[in-house]
Amino acid sequence: MPAAGAPLRRMGFLTIGLFDPDDPAAGHETTLRIIELGERLGFDSAWVRHRHLQFGISSPVAVLAAASQRTRRIELGTAVTPLGWENPLRVAEDWATVDVLSGGRFNPGFSIGTPMTYEHVRSALYPDTGDVEDFTTERVLRVLRLVRGERASDFAGRQGIEQFSDRVQPHSPGLAGRMWYGAAGLKSARWAGEQGLNLLTSSVVRADDPDTPPDFAQIQAASIRAFRAAHPDGDAARVSHGLVVIPTDSATAEQRAKYAAYVEARTPRTAEPQGPARMMFARDLIGTSEEIAEQLHAHAGFQLAEETAFALPFSFAPDDYVQILTDMATRLGPALGWAPATTG
Question: What pLDDT, on the 0 to 100 scale, is given for residue 85?
Fold first, then answer.
């Protein structure tokens, strides 16, 4: 486990990849250029998020396959793929393919649960099996077994002129060690540790205990400790910490005003747990890099992680992302003890 005040070892960023439905190609191209910029700035990783039936990236594997051909060093990840939308065998093939194309840089992050708005999409997603689909952790275990090279078929050999394997192809041996579970609560974090997965934490946690005062940072820290206590690697188990951070060092006055309005509109939901699931949202961190670094160093969850994937705000313009990423790489990262990677 990192010591208090230890330097940040790896820094990445997360984008939702929004696009205009009347011109989706432009938005996807912007996402690819942002990932290219991230590599030039020395970020260790770039992550994208699913947005099914919305105006954001619906197919991260396709976007990251393209990104793999326009970058050489930066790691590429999904944060997270909701497995309820995926067939485990097919997603294992897709992940292995992207990993091979990227030269072993793919980091699939995933979660479980019933798909969002399932009552509206079930007839299109699972018209014949909607009532019997298993959205529990067993779906994760199926993917893990397939990625790790366990048999997917009871037949291997030749039929006519075609050769068949009984395992997912291509097989990428290192991929299983780069699989990340998105956990919001103690139980799921502990389970991820037991499976030997890596842990993705974000700006959302679950306040499982209604009798405990809801403190986002403390809840997140407890989940990280539970994960590492259950993991075979113990305190060396990998955890990636993620919050929305908006450094304003080089922002214009207009940008600062827009950023402040964005944060103000999102802050009320952070006051207390939301909904029956008691989900808690972290405050967005805005200010100079020194101010943000000071807040992160005091954050109980951040203190336990050596890696982070800072989330970019969802609805900003490309120029805003360039400014934010540049400030992250040149000012915030160094203030956290991080050094940019070099492309070579």
Answer: 97
pLDDT digits (tens, 9 = 90+) for 43-78: 999 999 999 999 999 999 999 999 999 999 999 999
Residue 220 lies in a domain: yes
- Rounded-to-integer distance, Cα 343 and Cα 139, Å: 37
Q: What's the pLDDT band for 5 if we cut at 50, 70, 90?
A: low
Say whether pLDDT at 315 is over 80: yes
Task: Classify residue 52: in a domain, yes or no.
Answer: yes
Q: Would you state the pLDDT for residue 343? A: 59
Domain annotation covers residue 343: no
User: Once rounded to an integer, what is the mean pLDDT over residues 5-20?
Assistant: 93
Share of the chain above pLDDT 70, in %: 98
CA angle 281, 340, 31 (to 5 degrees): 60
Tokens for 179? 């699989």
How many Å separate Cα 4 from the centre of its chain? 24
Q: What is the pLDDT of residue 231?
A: 98
Q: Are 297 and 332 in contact (CB under 8 A)?
A: no
Query: What would the DSSP string read from start to end of 190-246?
Result: HHHHHTT-EEE--SEEE---TTS---HHHHHHHHHHHHHHHSTTGGGS-EEE--BEE
**Whole-angstrom Cα distance, residue 107 to residue 172?**
12
Within 8 A by CB and 6+ apart from 333, the residues are 8, 11, 339, 340
What CATH number is attached to the domain comprising 248? 3.20.20.30
Distance in angstroms (rounded) separating the CA atoms of residues 296 and 290: 10
- The per-residue pLDDT of the chain, averaged, comes to 95
Domain that holds residue 66: 10-152+167-335
Instruction: Give Dmax over CA atoms of the chain in angstroms.
Output: 69
The reply to whether 43 falls in a domain is yes
Q: Indicate if the pLDDT at residue 3 is higher than 60.
A: no
| Count of structural domains, the chain | 1
- Cβ-in-10-Å burial (0-12, 13-18, 19+) of 197 comes to buried
CA distance 231 to 197: 8
**Rg, the chain, Cα only:** 20
Torsion sign, CA atoms 289, 290, 291, 296: positive
